[in-house]
Specification:
single chain, about 525 residues, alpha/beta, Rossmann fold, five-stranded parallel sheet
Length: about 525
Amino acid sequence: MEEKKAEHMNLLMQTSAWPALRSKAIQLSRVHLRNFFEQDSERFARFSLAHDGWLMDYSKQRIDDETLSLLMELVHALDLPRGIRALAAGDQVNFTERRAALHMALRARDGAHAELVRDCLGALEHWVSLIRRRELLGATGQTITHVINLGIGGSDLGPRLAMETLEPQCDGPVVKLVANLDPVALDMALRDCKPAHTAFVLSSKSFTTQETLANAKVAMKWLADGLGSAGVGQHLFAVTNRPAAAQELGVPAERCLFLPEWVGGRYSVWSSIALPLACAIGMPAFREMLDGARSMDEHFTQAPMSSNLPVMMGLIDFWNASGMGLETLAVLPYSHLLRNLPTYLQQLEMESNGKRCTSTGELSRAPSAPVVWGGSGIVGQHAYHQQFYQGTRMMPMHFIVPRHAPDERSRMVQLNALAQSAALMRGKTRDEALDELRRSGLSEQEATRLSPHVACPGNQPSTTLLMPLLNPRTLGQLLALYEHKVFVQGWLLGINSFDQYGVEYGKQMARALASGNLPADADASTRGLHAALGKPG
């Protein structure tokens, strides 16, 4: 597998499709998106894709039939179907660390890891049931009513997003998540808590995560001050691949939930890392999330390339970022419950594909992951959307819109999403702006003066994703959709989407500074700033 993978890595620049796509990018950059629609009344029908209640409209992207044909040629030249099969089969697609990426195994019903996954889910269900039935008692014999998760990165972002998205269904204990090492974060979480009623989940795969362990020590002291040191263990859980390290810290063995080594951090929401989430929403809802993700896995591994949602989304985003060199991707969920989806996707996309090195050790000559950002679409319209309308940068967007509209306000949110994508594509010419200003009653001179300020170039590419009613199953589908589209982009670029050595370098630097001994080769800026900080306290 690895020899074939290395062979694959040299192919992107060698394919006949790649230089043709680069030429196509230059050609299409001169065409306004509105021209595509003026010349083709069937464009929406040809450039949209439906599956299981989902609809992806990519007709507002800067593509034509030839572009899609070339992208499909690239898919087959780089043998993306083989990559998908390798991912699903548990081959070593993580080629730098020589291991598989097995997040799909966490939601599969069978397979080589099914027994371990069932055991992990069983342990999760045991503790979740006790906590939700209020049968878990603390050191003083009182019920645990508050659960605080201490974790960062993948040990926080997935559960946090899912809890926010499914907040209307949260009917369990009070659950809070603390990721930041800044003391204010934990202090605020503890503000309404009492030691006798509070349990902490220490979520760290390696159980060496600096931020999590530092917060854990503070939490344990808080418990000891309120309960006595002997009772602390009855208020602790750990989710880790190193239960012995957790036990050494004081977590009882039976409260250490196992996290397999092959679970990647940004793909861990499907694992025991979901303990705080499952406490909040219940195991039936969490299993629905797993079912939704599994249904998207099956679609990804079985559907033809041209009718495959993750493949097509991955191809379009690859085309924008790597083909056309567009540097950002704005994710705009038109749902308050999904408002922090962009934050979750920042880790998923930029930690996965924010790299420049292929398996041969050569630098990629194609731009890799875009800068992912965004927020609630309806709120952003009154803030940064101005940049989309009249700024100087072309900025691809994802509009994510749940179809269900229980009332008139929800319908207004939906229609705003459609209006934004249409207006940002079409734009308003200077002549159109002039006519509009004349109709408003302004003098000819004043209308002429203002028209360049009112005109909008439009021409902003976007994909609109209509999703079914937002619930645990469709949330699982949405997250799996993005997981797989990120894999598609990484495969086409020839990079490893499953390591993060750059992140590790930053941690090494932080540890060096924390030791109090600056490296001998520390730069003058770091030395000056370190001295200016002075001592803590």
